[in-house]
Write a structure and sequence with these properties.
2 copies of one chain form a homodimer. Chain A has 496 residues and is of the alpha/beta class. Chain A folds into 3 domains: 27 residues, no CATH class; 164 residues, Aspartate Aminotransferase, domain 1, CATH 3.90.1150; 255 residues, Aspartate Aminotransferase, domain 2. Chain A is 44% helix and 12% strand. Chain A has 18 helices and 14 strands. In chain A, the strands form 4 sheets. Chain A has a 7-stranded mixed sheet, sandwiched between helices. A 3-stranded antiparallel sheet of chain A has the order 10-14-13. A two-stranded parallel sheet of chain A has the order 1-12. At the A-B interface, α2, α4, α7, α8 and α13 of A face α2, α4, α7, α8 and α13 of B.
C-alpha cells in the first residue's frame, strides 16, 4: 500500500490521478502467473523479427521459433482431407462442386446436419455437438481395444488447455492448510503452474528422473505427497504422457503404479494425453490411462476418478489455430459432472469449426473411402519425418560436449541438459536472470534460434536445460542443432 | 462436513469409497455459479426435443429456442462474402477456382499472409494476428468519427465473453470488506453474475428503470455504490449498451453522465457493446463509450479507464459458432496491460478462424469491390427484418392483457413484464420454483416455446419477466408471440 500511495503523489505532481487498476491493486494471483512458452524470450524474438524487417543488421537472417509446438508455423502442410471437409462445412455452396471427393462431401453434410441451423455459425450445446461426442467415444473405444466409452462423459473444449483449466477449477477449495494441492511433474508444461497460481491452489512438485529418460518414479510421488501434506490438502495428480517437455513415453507398468498410488492416496487423476499420436521410439507405445485403469479391474476400474485430455493441435495434423480438444471423464461424481457442464455453459460453446475438425481427426477416412490413400500417405509422411527428427535431435545433441539429451520417445520436444560454466552462472546472477535464461537469450541474439529455458518448466536445482521443438523441416533442423551446439561450445569457452 | 461424512458411510455400505471430488468437496465458488440462458429450462427443452424424436405425443411439433441470441440456429443464412473468404482461407487450393470473386480471393490471401506458415492452423500471437488488430483499430476509428484507436490496445478473444472474463479477473482482489465490488445492471446478462461468483468478487446491483424504457439512471448508480461501500471495495462498473436483455439503447447524455460518475467514483468502466450494429428504433443511435469519453476531453479522455467489448456473434452476421471477438482498452495502466497479455498467453490464442471472420466483419467489401452489392443487400435485409421483428414484438405483447413490453430499441431480445396471479405465485413457491420459472416451464411444456425467466437476469422484487429473442423468421415470430400471449391469458385464468 505504501508503494501505491507513492504512485498517487507522483501522479498528482504530474496532474494525473492514479489508475484504478495498477500492478499494486490488481489481482495478485494473476500477477503471480508465469508462462514461459510465450514469456520474455518470445517477446524478444518478436522484437528481433521487427528489427530484421526494418533492415537492422543481425548475425542471422531469420528468427527460428523452436519455442512452441506449432507444426504448421514451421511449414507442415495441413492434411488435405481435413481442410476439404472443413471448407465444405464453411461454405456449403461448394457441395455441388466437382472438385471435392464424395466422402469429403458426405462427411461435411453429416457434420452440418448435426449443427444448429445446419451451420457452423450457430452455437452448439456447451458440451459440444452430440454427434461429435459420439464419434469421440467411438474413437476412444477403438483406441482402447473395445473398452466402452460413454459420449455423455466426453466434453469438447477450446483446445485441451480449456478443459484442463475447467477440471482444475472444480478441484480447488479450502484455505490455508486445507488449500487444494495438485501434484505436477517437474519439468512440467507451464499451463499447470500458471493455472494453479491463478486459482490459488498449491503446486506440489514431483521430479521426473532424468537419469532414467525422465521416467516417473512412484517413490518420488510418495516423497512429494508426504512433504505436501503438512501445508495443504493434496487432491489431484497431473500426468503428462507422452511427456511435455520431456518427450518421455510411460510404460504400462509405470501407469499401473501411478493409478494404484492415486487410488490409495485418494487423488483425482488428470492425464494430459495430447501427444497420444506422437510416439516414435522403437519399443515405446502409448497406453491410455483409461485403458490401463479399466484393465486393472476392481476396485480401480469402478472408483478411480480420471480426466483424460486430447487436442487437435498436435498429432499428425497440428491444427493449433482451430482450438479443438476434448476431455473424457471417468468415474466422476454425477453431480460434479453437472456442475462442470454448468461452468462450461457460461462460455456458451467451444469454437464449432474446431469441433468439426476434431470430428475428422477422431474418425478419419476408412480404407474403402476415396480419400483414404491420400490421407494415409500424408499422415504417415508427417509421422515418419517426426520420428526421424526425434532421432536426429538426440544424436546431434549427444555428440556435442556439455550437452546431453534423453531419447525423444514421443511428443514434439527435446529437453536437453546443458552444462553452463560457473562464470556464466555468475554473470547471469549479476544480470538478475536465471542462468539458462541468460544462455537462451544469448543464443537468440547471436543465432536467431528461439528456445525456452528449462527454468520455465522446472528442473532440479543447479541443472540447466532448454526445450526445443523437433518441428523444423529435417534439413533445417540439422543445421539448427549444429548451430546451437556450436554456440554452446563458444559460450562455454567465453565464460571459462 | 456432516453431510460429506454421511455420504461416506453410505458409500461404505455400498462397498464403494466416496469420490475425491463431490458436491461438498468441490470449489464452492463454482457451485454458486448460475447461468440461466442455458439453465434448467434449456435442459428441459433438450429432453422435450428428444421425446419428440422418440415419437412421444406433445401439444406441439417442435421446440422453439427463443432463449438464446443464436441467429443462424433460427434459420438466418450466413453472409455469402464472409463464408467465401473463410472457405478460401481454410482450403487455399480453392484460390485457383473461378467460382469465387476476386475480392474474396484477395482478402483470403491477405489474411493467410498474416498467419504463421500462411495457415489458419498455426497459433497466432496471444493478442491476435497483428494485421487483424490493425483492421479492428481502423474500424473503431471509422465508427468513432476519426478518433484514433491504437492496435496495441486491441486484443482479440474467444467471443466477447472470454475478454470480459479476462478484464474482470484483473480487477478482483482483496478479502472480506476490501473484496472487489463490481456494479452490474439489473436486469443483466448472466455472464457477469456467473463470472463474479466464480472469481469471488462482490456483485453490486444497480437497477435499470423499467418505467423509462429500461434507462440507466445515475442517481441509482449512486444509491448502489453508497450501499456497497459498507461491505466491499467497488472498483468497476459494467454497462451493457445496447442492453441485454432489455433492448435499451443509451442516449449520449446518459453515457456522459455514466462516464462522469465512473471518473468521480474511481471506477474502471466495462462497456459491453456487442450489439453495436443492432439498433432499430427511430431516434435511437449507438454511441460508443470510447467516442463519448474522448469527446468529453480532459480530465476524462486522458484518465478514465475503459474496456469496450465487441463480438462476431451478433450484429447482422450472427456467427456465434466461430467465437470471434475483441476488447479495446483505453487508458489502461501499461504494466497491467502487459499482465493481461501474459494471462491471455496461457491459453495460447483465440481461434484463428474466428479471428479471420472478425477481420471481414470490421473491414467489409468497399463500394468498388465486386462483392459489395451482394454483401450490402444481405446485410440490409437482415437488419431490416430484425427491425421489423423488434417492432412486431413490442406491438403484439402490448396488445395482450397482463403483458407489457418496452420498445426493443436495439439488441436481439424483448424482456416483457408479465402479471402472474397470486395463486400461481403460491403454487410456484410450493414447488420451490421462482414464479417466472414456473410460468416459463409451463409455457415450454404446453407450447414448446423456450424463453428464459426474468429471475435469471435479475428484476425488482415482486415483478416477473422473461427474455425472448426476436430471431425467429417474421411470420413464425408472429405466431409465437400470439401463442405466448394466449398461453399467458389461459395461465392467468387457470390460477385466478
Amino acid at each position: 500500500m505504501a508503494s501505491s500511495t507513492g504512485d498517487q503523489s507522483q501522479a498528482v505532481r504530474n496532474g494525473l490521478r492514479t489508475k484504478v487498476l495498477t500492478l499494486h491493486s490488481m489481482n495478485p494471483r494473476v500477477r503471480r502467473v508465469e508462462y514461459a512458452v510465450r514469456g520474455p524470450i518470445v517477446q524478444r524474438a518478436l522484437e528481433l523479427e521487427q528489427e530484421l524487417r526494418q533492415g537492422v543488421k543481425k548475425p542471422f537472417t531469420e528468427v527460428i521459433r523452436a519455442n512452441i509446438g506449432d507444426a504448421q508455423a514451421m511449414g507442415q502442410r495441413p492434411i488435405t482431407f481435413l481442410r476439404q471437409v472443413l471448407a465444405l462445412c464453411v461454405n456449403p455452396d461448394l457441395l455441388t462442386s466437382p472438385s471435392f471427393p464424395d466422402d469429403a462431401k458426405k462427411r461435411a453434410e453429416r457434420i452440418l446436419q448435426a449443427c444448429g441451423g445446419h451451420s457452423l455459425g450457430a452455437y452448439s450445446v456447451s458440451s459440444g455437438i452430440q454427434l461429435i461426442r459420439e464419434d469421440v467415444a467411438q474413437y476412444i473405444e477403438r483406441r482402447d481395444g473395445g473398452i466402452p466409452a460413454d459420449p455423455n462423459n466426453v466434453f469438447l473444449s477450446t483446445g485441451a488447455s480449456d478443459a484442463i483449466v475447467t477440471v482444475l477449477k472444480l478441484l480447488v477449495a479450502g484455505e490455508g492448510h486445507t488449500r487444494t494441492g495438485v501434484l505436477i511433474p517437474i519439468p512440467q508444461y507451464p499451463l499447470y503452474s500458471a493455472t494453479l497460481a491463478e486459482l490459488g491452489a498449491v503446486q506440489v512438485d514431483y521430479y521426473l528422473d532424468e537419469e532414467r529418460a525422465w521416467a516417473l518414479d512412484v517413490s518420488e510421488l510418495h516423497r512429494a505427497l508426504c512433504q505436501a501434506r503438512g501445508h495443504c490438502h493434496p487432491r489431484a495428480l497431473c500426468v503428462i504422457n507422452p511427456g511435455n517437455p520431456t518427450g518421455q513415453v510411460q510404460t504400462r507398468e509405470c501407469i499401473e503404479a501411478v493409478i494404484r498410488f492415486a487410488f490409495e492416496e485418494r487423488l483425482f487423476l488428470l492425464a494430459d494425453e495430447v501427444y497420444q499420436d506422437n510416439v516414435y521410439a522403437a519399443g515405446s507405445q502409448f497406453h491410455s490411462f483409461k485403458k490401463v485403469l479399466m484393465e486393472m479391474g476392481p476396485p480401480y476400474a469402478r472408483q478411480q476418478e480420471l480426466a483424460s485430455f486430447h487436442s487437435t493441435s498436435k498429432g499428425y495434423m497440428g491444427e493449433c489455430g482451430f482450438r479443438g480438444g476434448y476431455v473424457e471423464v471417468v468415474n466422476m461424481d454425477a453431480a460434479v459432472q453437472q456442475q462442470m457442464l454448468k461452468l462450461m455453459s457460461v462460455r456458451l460453446c467451444p469454437p464449432v469449426p474446431g469441433q468439426a475438425l476434431l470430428d475428422l481427426v477422431v474418425s478419419p477416412p476408412a480404407p474403402t473411402d476415396p480419400s483414404f490413400a491420400q490421407f494415409q500417405a500424408e499422415r504417415q509422411a508427417v509421422l515418419a519425418e517426426l520420428a526421424a527428427k526425434a532421432k536426429l535431435t538426440e544424436q546431434v545433441f549427444n555428440e556435442a560436449p556439455g550437452i546431453s539429451c534423453n531419447p525423444v520417445q514421443g511428443a514434439m520436444y527435446s529437453f536437453p541438459r546443458v552444462q553452463l560454466p560457473p562464470r556464466a552462472v555468475e554473470r547471469a546472477q549479476e544480470l538478475g536472470l536465471a542462468p539458462d535464461m541468460f544462455f537462451c537469450l544469448r543464443l537468440l541474439e547471436e543465432t536467431g534460434i528461439c528456445v525456452v529455458p528449462g527454468s520455465g518448466f522446472g528442473q532440479r536445482e543447479g541443472t540447466y536445460h532448454f526445450r526445443m521443438t523437433i518441428l523444423p523441416p529435417l534439413e533445417k533442423l540439422r543445421l539448427l542443432l549444429e548451430k546451437l551446439s556450436r554456440f554452446h561450445a563458444k559460450f562455454t569457452l567465453e565464460y571459462s
